[in-house]
Specification:
The chain is α+β, with helices and mostly antiparallel strands. The protein is built from four helices and four strands. It has two domains: about 120 residues, no CATH class; about 45 residues, no CATH class. The chain starts with 5 loop residues before the first helix and ends with a helix.
């Protein structure tokens, strides 16, 4: 699912059916839709954080991607990442990666900045600065919450869909 404006999301929640007293679950379906709309609204209002784009630890500090020296256990590294020292660090990285809400973002050692090369976007989650790269140069703007990113139709991860209350 792509990040969409709230009004479009609401309109996509088609009317379940006409009111018919014989349909006992009509009310439940309508309540479920309202709950989903409320949940999506809360999702859109969240302030942006680095962890929405790339894996971070519980303190919000960037976790570097796991690096492997080879693709097999032939070289002595036993197929384990070379930039961590214990299984807990590996587990921490994968758990943090599961919490990322938007697909396609990277962090390239610039404090607070994340990049989406395919879309030509960079965001500084600390200041809210948005840089848009295009053939005519660079444009700048400010983003503070998820809703501010709607016009870029970002792809949501399964974790984001779970936060919203949607099944994949």
């Amino acid at each position: 699912m792509k990040l969409t404006p709230l009004s479009d999301f609401v309109l996509e929640q088609k009317e379940t059916s006409t009111i018919d007293t014989a349909q006992i679950d009509w009310y439940d379906k309508e309540i479920s839709k309202l709950d989903l709309i409320r949940s999506y609204t809360k999702f859109l209002k969240q302030p942006l954080t680095l962890g929405m784009f790339v894996p971070v630890n519980k303190d919000g500090v960037l976790l570097k991607p796991l690096q492997f020296c080879c693709s097999s256990s032939d070289c002595g590294c036993m197929g384990m990442p070379v930039n961590v020292s214990c299984q807990e660090e590996i587990d921490e990285y994968y758990e943090a990666k599961e919490k990322v809400l938007f697909e396609g973002w990277t962090h390239e050692d610039r404090y607070g900045w994340v990049q989406h090369h395919e879309l030509g976007l960079e965001i500084n989650t600390e200041t809210g600065t948005l840089a848009i790269f295009h053939e005519n140069g660079i444009g700048y703007g400010y983003v503070k919450k998820v809703e501010d990113l709607v016009s870029y139709a970002l792809t949501l991860t399964p974790s984001a869909l779970e936060v919203i209350g949607m099944k994949e």
